[in-house]
Design goal:
Layout lengths: L16 H13 L4 H7 L3 H4 L1 E4 L2 E4 L7 H13 L2 H9 L26 E2 L2 E2 L1 H20 L12 E5 L6 H9 L9 E5 L4 H8 L7 E6 L6 H18 L6 H4 E5 L2 H7 L6 E3 L16 H28 L6 H14 L5 E6 L7 H13 L17 E3 L11 H6 L6 E6 L9 H18 L3 H6 L7 H4 L7 E6 L4 H22 L10 H15 L10 H13 L5
Parallel strand pairs: 5-6, 5-7, 7-8, 8-9, 10-11, 10-12, 12-13
Antiparallel strand pairs: 1-2, 2-13, 3-4
Helix pairs in contact: 1-4, 6-12, 7-12, 7-14, 12-19, 13-19, 14-19, 20-21
Bound molecules: 6-O-phosphono-beta-D-fructofuranose.
The site of 6-O-phosphono-beta-D-fructofuranose has 14 residues, from loops.
Amino acid sequence: MTDTMSDTTPVPLRERPAYRELAAHYEAIKATHLRELFAAEPDRGPRLALQFEDIYFDYSKHRITDETLQLLIALAEQSGLPERIAAMFSGEHINLTEDRAVLHVALRAAADEHITFDGHDVVPDVQAVLAKMSDFADRVRSGEWTGHTGQRIRNVVNIGIGGSDLGPVMAYEALKHYSQRSLTFRFVSNIDGTDFVEKTLDLDPAETLFIVASKTFTTLETMTNARTARDWLLAGLGADESAVAKHFVALSTNAEKVSEFGIDTANMFGFWDWVGGRYSMDSAIGLSTMIAIGPDGFSRMLAGFHSVDLHFRTAPLPENIPALMGLLTVWYTDFFGAQTQAVLPYDQYLNRFPAYLQQLTMESNGKSVSLDGSPVDYNTGPVYWGEPGTNGQHSFYQLIHQGTLTIPADFIGFLHTLNPIGEHHDLLTANVFAQTEALAFGKTEEQVREEGTAEPLVPFKVFEGNHPTTTLLVDTLTPYTLGQLVALYEHSVFTQGTIWSVDSFDQWGVELGKVLAQRVIPELQSSEPPQLHHDSSTNTLIAKYRRAQGRPV
Ligand code: F6P
């Protein structure tokens, strides 16, 4: 905690004038149907949309009027959004509870930019790590970097969890089209030994490179998997510890721990504590991505991130896409009581995008204490979830269409597919447009009757509609547009956190479980019956497990 914490806290959310006006405005428009809004304004679709480079952002199918937008923008201003954006980009310690700067934007800054943090320009540091990563990635891709026995590397296994896994695996899946297909990529994250066993079952240790990705290099899951990987490698090669140097590299901020583990720090790619784990896929944590798509592809991805950073920093709020995305989430979360936000990418390559967003959004804004330490009296971060279309349509869309919850949904579609076979892409895209239309406009009782539906079935076939959606229509999925999409959500999260006055960059909520697990581990493993001082449920579960392992209780 910093001394300045209370100075930087704006007036409580409910006391901001725009929030009060929004509360009254919500009462006035909550019953207005999207059918009425579209009927009243024939060009609402193109008017409430923005084109930013190759991304078309259509927010017309939201339950908003011009007044709603004005009030949301006033709320952003009264919450200090412009000042906070400036503070982030200038390296201020906006992660108050950890007293850290938040500078993931420096990871993708242009090489000739200057971003200073505590008086130090971090851009040259970033460029130096990128150069080292590029050199290494090229050597692995070309076969110049060989394993201990001289065989070329054919398998790259990233071992990490949370931000040290979700970004890399999402980006690998998303950009597989651009990847070097002669290399196999695997991602081991879970401490469940099954993850390691299944991911390495068909791999030859002589051809396998492990990337141990951990900001802290202390995370239980990652260190356990990394030790297992080292044993697997040495057993498979019948080699001594010296083999580790050719088969293990580390991505971390903690050189001491990397060295303790036995990885030469010459094979370590560093980053800094001003990069949050969930904001790190474009740091050294992205080494697997770079090996997959090459240094040029990685640069294009960074350029995509950077383009949205510039947009977020400079576009006026009414034309600022991530700010609008964040404000719309606040609108539904705090006024409509929406508790979830669906993200529905209509591209199979984005199959891990919702999982990636879960950490980004929920670890960031799953907070119930505002910056001054007082409990919030409003809802904060919603649950983000989703699946690629059209699979979701045959699963959970029923609830979005006809359930009782309000579930704002982001539809992400592409004008061009990377796999143009037959009519697949037309059919896929037709579904994007049809779903948002159906969700917005539904089907009235009259329409159902006109179709000749038997009277008893009429209520079941009515679609209320009025379900809000955003459509992000992107030209093509490329490294550049992937970087743009991720940055849009990063800055949407930032906007939300600013309105809610929470620290979007700490994650104290994951600590308790970690600490308790450390207490339980010896109680499961001890050879003598442990003295258990938990609640009666936990004590019984521990005893049951010990019996199953043949350990005395
Ligand atoms: O437990 C949560 C967390 O700290 C995340 O924020 C982070 O991305 C993940 O663990 C992994 O941490 P590390 O990269 O230090 O292993």
